[in-house]
Amino acid sequence: MTVDRAPADVKPVLNRLRRAQGQLNAVIAAVENGGKCRDVVIQLSAVSSALDKAGFQIIATAMEKCLNDPDDTTDPMTVEELEKLFMTLA
């Protein structure tokens, strides 16, 4: 299954990923410049959360597509495969 490219579905995912990218850049800069441990960990937690949410959104969109169009054969995934993907983020 491919990542859905419908603008309404892609925009929130891209926003989350870009936010995570900015936060990760801030973490890297803080580590390079000797930032406070607490600030680095809090920022790193925000990066992790943003990435998890983006992943969940991608998988949720894939699940919705499977339910709404079970005959789509462009890149078929079984329910078990979707569950496994979902669990990799847990």
Description:
With 90 residues, this protein is mainly alpha-helical. 76% of the residues lie in helices and 0% in strands. It contains 3 helices and no strands. The chain has helices spanning 7-32, 37-68, 79-88. The longest helix is centred in the middle third of the chain and has 32 residues, at 37-68. It is elongated. 9% of the residues are buried.
Question: Which assembly state applies to the chains in this document?
Answer: single chain
* Count of DSSP H/I helices: 3
Using only CA atoms, what is the Rg?
A: 16 Å
Low-confidence stretches: none
* Beta-strand percentage range: under 5%
**Mean pLDDT score:** 83
Largest sheet: none
* Order of SSEs: HHH
In helices, the fraction of residues equals over 70%
What would you call the structural class? Answer: mainly alpha
Give the overall shape, derived from the CA principal axes: elongated
- Please report the total strand number as a whole number: 0
Distance between the termini: 20 Å
